[in-house]
Amino acid sequence: MEWTDRHYRYFARLITRHTLLYTEMVTTGALLHGDRERFLGYSEQEQPLALQLGGSHAGELAECARLAEAAGYREVNLNVGCPSDRVQNNLIGACLMGHPELVVDGVKAMLDACSIPVTVKHRIGINGRDSYEQLADFVGRVHEAGCETFIVHARIAILEGLSPKENREVPPLRYEVVHRLKADFPQLEIVLNGGLTDLDVMQEQLQGLDGVMVGREAYHNPYMLAEVDRRFFGDDAPVRSRIEVLEALRPYIAAHLAQGDALHHVTRHILGLFQGLPGARHFRRRLSTEIHRTEQPLAFFDDVVVDMAGRVAG
C-alpha cells in the first residue's frame, strides 16, 4: 500500500513488458465509498494489470469485482496475506485464514459477478493455524469455490506481537511447503511469494511451480525487471538502459506536471533505479532533497538525467 501506485506501475512497465503488475491493496470500502477514479484509474500502458482487493463481505467483494472487470483489469485478487493490525480489525488480510468460510463465500460471489480470473494471495498459515493440514484444507475449500490460482507467501503471519515489517522478515521462509502444496494440488496454478530477490533463485524455484511474485525487491531495485522478459517470457527484444527508462518516463512526468501535480509523486518511486552503480546515492539525494527546492521541476528532471548519463558513461 502506497508503493505500487499508478506512477510506480507506469515506471515498471518501461522496464518490463510482460510481468503482471498488481495494484496496491484497495479495501472494498475505499473503492465503493471513496474516490473511485483514484483507486481504479490506470494508464493503458500498465497492462497486464491486476486489482488487489482487501475485504471479507461477499456482496462488497462481488461489486468490486464487477467494477474491476468494467475498468479493464485482467485479474482481481483477494488479499488474505496482509498482517496489519489495521486491516485485521476489519476482517481483512491474513486473519481471514482463520475464517475460510468468508474467503469461500467471497470467492464464489466474485466469480459470479465477473468473468475475469479471481485469485487469492495468502500465507502458509497464521499463528494457531499453521499446520500443513490446515493450509491444505484452506486451499482445498477455496478451490472448491472456484479459485484456480493461489499466490502463496511462504511464511506464516503472526497476528499478535509483530509489526507488518517484522511479519515479512521474522517468520522463517518455507518454500518447501509451497512446493508440497503444488504436488498435492497439481491442477492448480501455484505462485511463490516471499523473500525473492535473485533471478537465479526464482528460476530454480519455478521448477515445479507456476510463477513467482516479487514485491519489495522489484520496488527497491526496479532494474532487476530488465532481465525478466528475456529470461522468463522468451522475449529477446532490446532492453532499455536506465537512462533510456528515464527518457521514456519524461512525457509521463510532463503530463503529470501539466495537471498541476508534483514531480516527487512520480520520482519517489524511481530512487532505486541505479542501485549498485556508482552515483546511486547521488541520484537518490537529488531526487529526495534538491527536488523540493526547484521552481522548474521538468528542467530539474532533465538535469538529473543528463547528470546520471555522464556518471554512468564515466
TrEMBL record:
List the InterPro entries: Aldolase_TIM, DUS-like_FMN-bd, DUS_fam, DusA, tRNA_hU_synthase_CS
**Would the keyword RNA-binding turn up in this protein's UniProt record?**
yes
What CDD domains would the database entry show? DUS_like_FMN
| Site entry (Interacts with tRNA), positions | 79, 165, 168, 281, 284
Q: Which reaction does it catalyse?
A: 5,6-dihydrouridine(20a) in tRNA + NADP(+) = uridine(20a) in tRNA + NADPH + H(+); 5,6-dihydrouridine(20) in tRNA + NADP(+) = uridine(20) in tRNA + NADPH + H(+); 5,6-dihydrouridine(20a) in tRNA + NAD(+) = uridine(20a) in tRNA + NADH + H(+); 5,6-dihydrouridine(20) in tRNA + NAD(+) = uridine(20) in tRNA + NADH + H(+)
As cofactor, the record names: FMN
What domain of life? Bacteria
NCBIfam families named in the record: PRK11815.1 (NF008774), yjbN (TIGR00742)
Q: Which PANTHER family match?
A: FMN-LINKED OXIDOREDUCTASES SUPERFAMILY PROTEIN
What's the stated role of this polypeptide?
Catalyzes the synthesis of 5,6-dihydrouridine (D), a modified base found in the D-loop of most tRNAs, via the reduction of the C5-C6 double bond in target uridines. Specifically modifies U20 and U20a in tRNAs.
Report what the protein is called: tRNA-dihydrouridine(20/20a) synthase
UniProt organism field: Halopseudomonas pertucinogena
